Inverse folding.
């Protein structure tokens, strides 16, 4: 029974379109993250949020926008999609800093 | 942000032998060093971690060593089994910094 739910599991998008990746965690954690994994850059850190506030950001492009409507939600909006955005996007969470990070199952995005 | 280097990228060992993966980090403020195992098609899962107040930690066949002065840490898997074959990632994090991961090591254990 996954405690970090990511939707959808697979996603195919057309170049130039916009998609939202959904993430909800039921671990009671106050920190949530997005990581991206591709053949070029395994487990690349993107964003971290704590109590719904942006704490750390290593994504250069403004096309990637995290959205936190609730404490246990951290969605990822991606605009103007490019084939290079094709990757598996992992949502993760932890109880505070310097503690175990739990990963969701991931959303595998393919941009054609 | 923190930068983590991980070597080797590919590691092939014989069943029953030991496997070692080495990582280094840049930020002296990093204080938490987890190791994750990722099977094909799965998400990464924590297998062992070590904090900066320790130099060595062992859980069954897994041993992690931390050298804070050299900013290096390593994972040693003793008596490897085919089930240990997977991708392994080291990471480093500190206060106010999310974990940054190394590039990964693909471990293959041959029977």
């Amino acid at each position: 029974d996954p405690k970090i739910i990511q939707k959808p599991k697979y996603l195919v998008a057309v170049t130039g379109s916009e998609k939202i990746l959904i993430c909800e965690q039921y671990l009671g954690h106050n920190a949530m993250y997005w990581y991206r994994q591709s053949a070029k850059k395994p487990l690349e850190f993107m964003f971290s949020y704590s109590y719904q506030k942006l704490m750390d950001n290593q994504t250069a492009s403004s096309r990637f926008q995290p959205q936190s409507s609730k404490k246990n939600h951290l969605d990822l909006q991606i605009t103007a999609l490019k084939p290079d955005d094709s990757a598996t996007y992992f949502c993760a969470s932890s109880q505070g800093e310097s503690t175990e990070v739990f990963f969701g199952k991931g959303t595998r995005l393919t941009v054609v | 942000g923190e930068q983590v280097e991980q070597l080797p990228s590919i590691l092939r060992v014989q069943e029953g032998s030991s496997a070692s993966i080495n990582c280094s980090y840049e930020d002296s403020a990093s204080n938490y060093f987890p190791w994750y195992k990722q099977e094909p098609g799965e998400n990464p899962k924590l297998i062992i971690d070590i904090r900066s107040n320790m130099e060595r930690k062992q859980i069954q066949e897994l041993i992690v060593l931390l050298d804070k002065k050299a900013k290096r840490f390593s994972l040693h898997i003793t008596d490897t089994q085919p089930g240990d074959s997977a991708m392994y990632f080291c990471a480093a994090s500190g206060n106010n910094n999310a974990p940054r991961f190394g590039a990964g090591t693909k471990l293959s254990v041959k029977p």
